[in-house]
Specification:
The protein is mainly α. It has 15 helices and 2 strands. The protein has a two-stranded antiparallel ribbon. β1 and β2 form a beta hairpin.
C-alpha cells in the first residue's frame, strides 16, 4: 500500500484533536459534577439533621404539654369526687344530719386547699434528709409566682396532689357524721391536710424512708385511703356513738337514691385517681391496664359484698352493694399498674368480703362508723396494698423499675411482701398515734363533740338552722331559743 495523501493526514489529526478535546471536557465535567453532587447532599444532610432535631424537640414539648394537660384533667376528676363523697355520705346518714354533712364535705376542700398550699405540699415533697423521715419544708410552694421557669409544672402537680389531700380529709367526715362540732371539724381537717397526710406522702411518693425500703402504692390505697380510714376510726372512737344508736341495728339510710348517684360519681372520679396517677399520656399499655383493672375491681367488689351479705342475711342489701364497689376501687388503687386483670377481679371480690367482715368487727367493738368509712378505706386500703406483694406481676414490676420485682405467687419472693407490710404498719402507726393525740386535744378543749342539745333536736337544726327537706322535716326548736 502507498502512503496516505497529505489532505487525509491533516483531516485525521484534526479529528483526533477534536476527539481529545471532547474527551477532556467530558472528564472535567464529570469531576465537577461529582464534586457538586457530593457537596449538595452534604448540605442537604446537615439541613435534614437540623430539621430532625427541631422536630424531636417540638415533639417532646408537645408530649410534655399533653402529659400536663392529662394530669390536670385527671385532677379535675379527682376533685369532682368531693361531690360524690358528699352525696354518698348525705344519703347514708339520718335526715337530721344531712345539711351538716354537706357543709363539712364542702369545707374539707376549702380548708385543705389553704393549708396544703401553705405548708402541706412543702412537707409532702420537701427535700429529704438522709434518714428519709423528715423533709426540708418549703412554704407557699417556695414562693412560685407563675413567672418563673418550671412554675407551671409545679402548679399542675400541686393541684393534682391537693385533690388527693382533699379526698383523704373527706373520708373521716363520713365516719364522724351527725355529732362532730363544726369548729372541731374545721380544726381536724386543717391538721390532717397540713401535717398528718403530708408526712405519709413524703415517706412514700416524696422519696422518704418507705420508698427507700421498696414500698409500692401506685395511686394511694394506703397513702390516701388507709390514712383517711384510720383517722376516721380514731375520730369515731373518740366521739362515741350517735344519739339513739343501737349496735347491731344501724340506722336506715336517709336517701339511697342520692347515695347511689354519689357512688357512681366516685367510681367515675376514680379513673382520674388511678389512671391519672400514670402522670402522663405516653404509655398506652399502662393507661389501658390501669383503666381496665380499676373497672374490674369495682364490679367484682360490688358482687363480692352483695353475695357475701346475702349469704349472711338473705337480703340484697343496696348499702353493701354500693360500699362493695368502693371497697374494690380502694383495694385496686395500690396495685392497679402492677397486677393483671384476672388478679384485679380477685382483689376486688375479696375486698368486698373484707368490707363486710370489717364492718361486723367495728360494730362488735361498739364504734359508730356512720358510713363504714374505716372498713371501705382503712381495711380495704391495707388489704389492697398487701396484695401487691402476693399477686404482683413480675413483668409489670420490672417495667416499673421497682426495687423488688417478684411477689409471693409470681416469682416466689418475700421481699416485696415484707416491704408492703412495713409500709402499711408504719403508716398505720403514724396516723393512729397522731390522729388520736389530735382528737384527744380537741375533745379536752370541748370542740370535738356537739352540745347535748344538738343530739336532741338534730345537728342540722342546732349548728346550721337548716333542713335538707324543710317541708317534710321541719326544724325542731332549741331550748336555748
Amino acid at each position: 500500500m502507498g502512503k496516505p495523501k497529505p489532505e487525509i493526514g491533516k483531516k485525521r489529526k484534526l479529528l483526533y484533536r477534536l476527539l481529545s478535546i471532547f474527551l477532556g471536557l467530558v472528564i472535567l465535567y464529570s469531576f465537577g459534577f461529582s464534586s457538586n453532587a457530593q457537596d449538595a447532599p452534604a448540605a442537604d444532610d446537615a439541613a435534614a439533621e437540623t430539621a430532625m432535631v427541631e422536630a424531636m424537640i417540638s415533639a417532646a414539648e408537645v408530649q410534655n404539654n399533653l402529659d400536663h394537660v392529662w394530669i390536670l384533667l385527671a385532677g379535675f376528676l379527682v376533685f369532682f369526687m368531693q361531690a360524690g363523697f358528699a352525696m354518698l355520705e348525705g344519703g347514708m346518714i339520718r335526715e337530721t344530719g344531712v345539711v351538716n354533712s354537706l357543709a363539712e364535705n364542702f369545707m374539707d376542700a376549702c380548708v385543705t386547699g389553704i393549708v396544703f398550699f401553705v405548708v402541706g405540699f412543702g412537707i409532702a415533697f420537701g427535700s429529704a434528709e438522709s434518714s428519709g423521715f423528715f423533709p426540708q419544708i418549703e412554704l407557699f410552694l417556695g414562693g412560685a409566682t407563675g413567672a418563673g421557669d418550671g412554675d407551671g409544672a409545679l402548679f399542675v402537680n400541686f393541684f393534682f396532689q391537693f385533690a388527693f389531700a382533699g379526698a383523704a380529709a373527706t373520708i373521716a367526715t363520713g365516719a364522724m357524721a351527725e355529732r362532730t362540732n363544726f369548729v372541731g371539724k374545721l380544726l381536724y381537717s386543717a391538721l390532717l391536710g397540713a401535717i398528718i397526710y403530708p408526712v405519709v406522702v413524703f415517706w412514700t411518693w416524696g422519696g422518704g424512708w418507705l420508698t427507700q425500703q421498696g414500698f409500692l402504692d401506685f395511686a394511694g390505697s394506703t397513702i390516701v385511703h388507709m390514712t383517711g380510714g384510720v383517722v376516721a376510726l380514731m375520730g369515731a372512737y373518740m366521739l362515741g356513738p350517735r344519739a339513739g344508736r343501737v349496735f347491731g341495728r344501724p340506722p336506715e339510710a336517709s336517701n339511697l337514691a342520692i347515695a347511689s348517684l354519689g357512688t357512681f360519681i366516685l367510681w367515675f372520679g376514680w379513673y382520674g385517681f388511678n389512671v391519672g396517677s400514670t402522670l402522663g399520656a405516653g404509655d398506652l399499655n399502662q393507661l389501658g391496664l390501669v383503666a381496665v383493672n380499676t373497672t374490674l375491681a369495682a364490679t367484682a367488689g360490688a358482687l363480692g359484698a352483695m353475695f357475701h351479705t346475702y349469704f349472711l342475711t338473705k337480703n340484697w342489701n343496696v348499702s353493701f352493694i354500693l360500699n362493695g364497689s368502693l371497697a374494690g376501687l380502694v383495694a385496686i388503687t395500690a396495685g392497679c399498674a402492677f397486677v393483671t386483670p384476672i388478679n384485679a377481679v380477685i382483689i376486688g371480690a375479696l375486698a368486698g368480703v373484707v368490707l363486710v367482715v370489717s364492718m361486723g368487727v367495728v360494730e362488735s367493738m361498739k364504734i359508730d362508723d356512720a358510713v363504714g368509712a374505716f372498713s371501705v378505706h382503712g381495711a380495704c386500703g391495707a388489704f389492697g396494698t398487701l396484695m401487691i406483694g402476693i399477686v404482683g406481676s413480675q413483668a409489670l414490676l420490672e417495667g416499673a423499675d421497682a426495687t423488688y420485682t417478684t411477689s409471693l405467687l409470681d416469682g416466689g419472693g418475700l421481699d416485696l411482701l415484707g416491704a408492703q407490710v412495713v409500709g402499711v404498719v408504719g403508716v398505720a402507726i403514724w396516723v393512729a398515734v397522731s390522729s388520736f393525740i389530735m382528737f384527744y386535744v380537741l375533745n379536752r378543749v370541748d370542740v370535738l363533740h356537739v352540745a347535748p342539745e344538738a343530739d336532741r333536736i338534730g345537728i342540722d337544726a342546732y349548728e346550721h338552722h337548716a333542713s335538707v327537706w324543710p317541708n317534710v322535716l321541719p326544724l325542731r326548736e332549741s331550748d336555748d331559743e
